[in-house]
Design a protein that fits this description.
By secondary structure, the protein is an alpha/beta fold. The chain folds into three domains: 2-55 and 71-105, Domain 2, N(10)-formyltetrahydrofolate synthetase, CATH 3.30.1510.10; 114-282, P-loop containing nucleotide triphosphate hydrolases (Rossmann fold); 311-379, Roll (Formyltetrahydrofolate synthetase, domain 3), CATH 3.10.410.10. It is 33% helix and 17% strand. The chain contains 13 helices and 17 strands. The strands form seven sheets. It has a four-stranded mixed β-sheet with strand order 12-14-15-13. It has a three-stranded parallel β-sheet with strand order 9-10-11, sandwiched between helices. Helix 9 links the parallel strand 10 and strand 11 (256-260). The radius of gyration is 23 Å and the shape is globular.
Length: 409
């Protein structure tokens, strides 16, 4: 609809070079990150530079996840900024008359998907924003329905406490008026050994890699909440290794640490963990946000970098500084921040494993999600359109001699 508007008179006076709305698809394709469209003459549109985002990074996905009802969904879609006029005034999806049809397309999508576990328990699986490039949490509607129906609700936020958890607290809890009671921090013997740089190591590797777990416990304390460490046990783990992880967790401030044997024993294997989580949730807590909304944009980014990631500070590239000035003028400085950074490190650099110190978080650009209601900070080399790795999962997928699909799991 945006391209059509430009072709048929451009009544709104949109500056084609200002268009910030990108195309979207649900496939990794690095060649589409930065492209030129409209080649071949006027009938094919206005020639300009643009690109694609993966679906999980789209503002539409974000809006579907935070909208409280159909009318809120419709209003948020209409508030999406797609570009600006030649005079610098923002242009929205509402002005393009696109919001109504977008809302109709999402009319059923906003309803949570009810699924059941192998043992028959109900669960909601709804929306899919990645926590490294988006806000990393399921829908507010699903959370609210669950809270209405259950005594205790566990919602999963993507990756770690530095990623999905921080965004759940500082963004989703603000928008959805939610207040958490406790946090479940998942750890594994294998993960801690990897953080030590010694995947096949023994107890010493766990001791070294546990610095990552203790840093996450510190992040949880920054928000004023109790943490229960769930040690996911696997067949190759020894009893001594699992007990060591539990001991370190308790020594570094965890409210409780329990083994989760759900991989082998299903729900029964997680019963002790569930009881510990209930006990932690029933304890008094002092939940608070990392930053106030009325703080300047740069200060909010710096608060996340220092208090959550453990950075010494931040470094804003010229493009990011220019956006801060523009957002301040547009009255957007009170929006929360959604950090797009690697999930492979507590820092913005995927090469810095375990519990890095002495680093500065580089922010190369900012995007205003005026419909969803936050500002995305692009950190380091983080891309909103991923590319396939050296060994993509597609290598392992095939059809066997019986015509059956193999390699999907």
């Amino acid at each position: 609809m945006l391209e059509t508007h430009l072709l048929h008179g451009n009544v709104l006076g949109i500056d084609p070079l200002s268009i910030s709305w990108r195309r979207c698809m649900d496939i990794n394709d690095r060649s589409l990150r930065d492209i030129v469209v409209g080649l071949g003459g006027k009938a094919n549109g206005y020639t300009r530079q643009t690109g694609f985002d993966i679906t999980a990074a789209s503002e539409v996905m974000a809006i579907a996840a935070v909208a409280s009802d159909l009318q809120d969904l419709r209003a948020r879609l209409g508030a999406i900024t797609v570009g600006s006029t030649y005079e610098g005034e923002p242009v929205t999806a509402e002005q393009l008359q696109a919001a109504g049809s977008m809302a109709v397309l999402l009319k059923e999508t906003i309803k949570p998907n009810l699924v059941q576990t192998l043992e028959g328990q109900p669960a909601f699986v709804h929306c899919g924003p990645f926590a490294n490039i988006a806000h990393g949490n399921n829908s507010v509607v699903a959370d609210r329905v669950a809270l209405k129906l259950a005594d205790y609700v566990i919602t999963e936020s993507g990756f770690g406490s530095d990623m999905g958890m921080e965004k759940f607290f500082d963004i989703v809890c603000r928008l959805g008026n939610l207040r958490p009671d406790a946090v479940v921090l998942v750890a594994t013997v294998k993960a801690l050994k990897h953080h030590a740089g010694d995947p096949d190591g023994g107890m010493d590797a766990i001791e070294t890699g546990a610095a990552n777990m203790t840093r996450h416990l510190g992040i949880i304390r920054e928000f004023g909440l109790n943490a229960v460490v769930a040690v996911n046990a696997f067949p190759g783990d020894t009893t001594e290794e699992v007990e060591l992880v539990k001991r370190i967790a308790l020594e570094h401030g965890a409210y409780a640490a329990e083994v989760n044997n759900g991989f082998l024993r299903g729900g029964e294997g997680g019963a002790a963990l569930a009881e510990a989580v209930v006990a932690a949730a029933d304890e008094p807590s002092k939940f608070d946000f990392i930053y106030p909304l009325d703080a300047p944009i740069e200060q909010k980014i710096e608060a996340i970098a220092k208090r959550v990631y453990g950075a010494d500070g931040i470094s804003l590239m010229p493009a990011a500084r220019a956006k801060i000035t523009a957002f301040d003028k547009a009255g957007l400085s009170s929006l929360p921040i959604c950090m797009a950074k690697t999930h492979l490190s507590l820092s913005h650099d995927p090469k810095l494993a375990n519990a890095p110190t002495g680093f500065t978080v580089g922010v190369r650009d900012l995007r205003a999600y005026t419909g969803a209601g936050w500002i995305v900070a692009l950190c380091g080399d983080m891309q909103t359109m991923p590319g396939l790795g050296k060994h993509p999962a597609a290598f392992d997928v095939d059809i066997d001699e019986r015509g059956e699909t193999v390699g999907l799991f």
